Amino acid sequence: xxxxxxxxxxxxxxxxxxxxxxxxxxxxxxxxxxxxxxxxxxxxxxxxxxxxxxxxxxxxxxxxxxxxxxxxxxxxxxxxxxxxxxxxxxxxxxxxxxxxxxxxxxxxxxxxxxxxxxxxxxxxxxxxxxxxxxxxxxxxxxxxxxxxxxxxxxxxxxxxxxxxxxxxxxxxxxxxxxxxxxxxxxxxxxxxxxxxxxxxxxxxxxxxxxxxxxxxxxxxxxxxxxxxxxxxxxxxxxxxxxxxxxxxxxxxxxxxxxxxxxxxxxxxxxxxxxxxxxxxxxxxxxxxxxxxxxxxxxxxxxxxxxxxxxxxxxxxxxxxx
Length: 321
Hints:
Elements: E1 5-6, E2 15-16, H1 33-38, E3 43-48, E4 51-56, H2 67-82, E5 88-93, H3 104-108, H4 114-121, E6 139-143, E7 146-148, H5 150-157, E8 160-164, E9 168-170, H6 184-192, H7 194-203, H8 209-214, E10 220-222, H9 227-239, H10 243-259, H11 263-272, H12 276-290, H13 309-319
Parallel strand pairs: 4-5, 5-6, 6-8, 7-9, 8-10
Antiparallel strand pairs: 1-2, 3-4
Helix pairs in contact: 6-7, 10-11
C-alpha cells in the first residue's frame, strides 16, 4: 500500500507517517539513502500536509549555530512563512539536543577580524536565525537535550514549547561573557515576568523541565523521546483550525504585549484588523455551528479531513467488497 513518508531526523532517522507514535517511545531504526544524504545539511526541512518541520542538524556540536547555519535557518523559516500550503511549523534539533547556542569556536577564531564579528552581530535578522522579528505563522519548538544560551533564545522566538523531561534550559553564555543579542532579554520577561527572567539572565543557572513548566517558560513536558512527536501533534491541533482567524488573534496578542502604547490602542488594533476575508471565514464557521457541528464543546467535524489519494482508492476498493 502506498504511503506518504514523514521524514523526521530526530536521531538522524526516517519515520513513516503512521509511526509518529513511535516518537513517544524513542527513535526508530529505519534509515534510507536519502536520509544519509540529508544528514550533511545543517538545516533540514520536511513537509507533511500543512505542517513544516525545520531541523537544526549539527549534532557533533550539539546543534550550535554558526553564522552560515543562522542564515540558512532564517531562509528556511522565511520559506515556511511564504509557503501558501504551510500553516504551522515545528522547530527541532537533530541528534539529541535542540541547540547549545552560538558556535563559540567561530567567535574565538575571529580575534583578528573584529569587523567580521561586528557584521555577524548586526545582522538585521539575528545571529541565531530570524530572532529579531516576529514570525508570521505559528511555530512550535521541540526541546530535547540542551537548549541553552542562544538556543534558549531560539526557543523563546517560537510561540509554544514542548520540552522533554530530561532536557535542560539556561543562559550558559553567562559563564563566558557572551551577551544575549537574539531576543532573550526582550521575550523572556514578557513570558515569565521580570523578576524570574532576571534570575535566569543574571545567574545563567540550569532550569529543569519541572521548573520551566511551573513558571510558564514551556507549555508541555513530555517523556524522553517524545518531544518531536508531541510538538508535531500540538502543531496539528493548531493547523486544523481556520488559519485567518488564528493569525489575526495571534498577531493581536503579540501587538498588545510588545507594541501597543496603551490598552485602548491594543483594543482598537484588534478590531480594525478584522478583514473582509476573515469575516467570510467566520461566516462559514457560523454556518457549520448552525448545522450542529461543534455543539456541546465538540471539536469533531470542525475541519473536513482531506484524504490522500491512496486512502480514497482503498476506501473505494473496500466499498466494492
